[in-house]
Specification:
Layout (H helix, E strand, L loop, with lengths): L8 H30 L5 E2 L9 H8 L14 E2 L11 E2 L18 H18 L8 H6 L11 H11 L30 E4 L4 H11 L2 E5 L7 E3 L1 E2 L13 E11 L2 E7 L11 E5 L12 E4 L2
Parallel strand pairs: 2-4, 7-10
Antiparallel strand pairs: 1-6, 3-8, 4-11, 5-8, 8-9, 9-10
Length: 299
Amino acid sequence: IVCHIPVDTHSTFCTHKADHRLRIFHQNLKTAEKLQSLDQGSAEYGVTKFSDLTEEEFRSTYLNPLLSQWTLHRPMKPAAPVQGPAPDSWDWRDHGGVSPVKNQGMCGSCWAFSVIGNIEGQWFLKNGTLLSLSEQELVDCDGLDQACRGGLPSNAYEAIEKLGGVETESDYSYTGHKQTCDFTTGKVVAYINSSVELSKDEKEIAAWLAENGPISVALNAFAMQFYRKGVSHPLKIFCNPWMIDHAVLMVGYGERKGIPFWAIKNSWGEDYGEQGYYYLYRGSNACGINKMCSSAVVN
C-alpha cells in the first residue's frame, strides 16, 4: 500500500518497481496464452510463482545455460541396453524410489538435484532404503561445476566419485548458495562407482527406467515457467531441443487419456506444477528430453 502514496522518493521508486513487474506479468500472460493455444498435449499454462519474471531473469536465476554448451560435456560410457520390453507404464514413486520434492531456491543448481535424485534411486535399488541425500555437498565441493551458476551431471558424478560419496540431506543441508566445502568422509552414507550415458531413443529410455531406476535428464524449460498441470507438449519453436537449460529427474512414464507422458520430478518446490512435478509428452523427443539422459552406477 505504501507503494501508492508517493510521499517520498522510496515510495515513487516502489510504484515504479510495481509497475515494472505488472508490465512483465501482463507480457507473460500473453506468452502463456500463446503456449496454451498452440499446445499439442493437455497442459494448462497460466499464472505461476514465476509469472512476474522476465525470460532472462527466470533463466539466469533458476535455469542452467551450461547444459547446452555441448563442448563442455565429458564423454561417458554407454549404458548396457535392457533385454526385455518396457512395461506400458511405470512410476518409481509407486515403488518407494523417489524422495519428496525439494526446492533449489534462487540458485541454478538443478544439475545437483537431478544427479542426487538419480543417486537416491540407485542407492534405494541396491540397498532397499531411500535416503534423502545432500545437494549442498555438490554445490560447495564439486570443483568441476559452477555451483549456482550451473553445472553438468557428467561432472557431478565424477566429483562424487572423487570425494568418495555423499552425505545425507540432514547432515549437510541445503542453503542455496555456495559455501566452503564442509564434506566429511566419516559422514558418507552413499557412494557411486561410475556413471553411464543412456540411449537417445525414448522407447529404450523407458525400458531402462523401468528396470534400473529414475534417470537424470535435461530439457528446454521455456514452457515450464508457465506450466500449471496436464501433459505439456509445446511446439518446437517454443522449446528448441538443442537449447537445453534445465536438469530434472525422470521418475516414470505412462498415458493420460491416450496422451503418452514422462513424469518429471522438478526442484522448484511442491507449489510448482502438479505437486512439484512436470508432465511432458513422450514420443516426439519433446524439448530435447532424450538428449542428455544419464545415471550413476552403484556396484
